[in-house]
Amino acid sequence: MLRDASVTRVVLVAAQTGYCVDTTARRAVSLGYDVDLVTDGHTTSENDLLTRDQIIGHNNQTLANLAIEDVNLTASSSARRPWVCSCASIHTDSA
Prior knowledge:
By secondary structure, the chain is of the alpha/beta class. It has one domain. It is 28% helix and 20% strand. It contains 2 helices and 3 strands. It has helices at residues 17-30, 52-64, and strands at residues 9-14, 34-42, 73-76. Strands 1-2-3 form a 3-stranded parallel β-sheet, covered by helices on one side.
């Protein structure tokens, strides 16, 4: 469907950094789409080992270094994209 609409680039903002963001970025790149990862446009829940910021930082770094021939994955903040709102501060804490 995306190819039929002449889409060549995916701008990625989402929740659940280690699941949705990671999988979508890797899958889009593997299918040949360029990906713009909005580094402050995704969030996640903390776990027993890492804080939310550590998980997000790790995924931003890992995905920014993902290299596939003839495909570009760029990672930058929403400040570089005024049309993208930041959702990094949106989260729910377990009470």
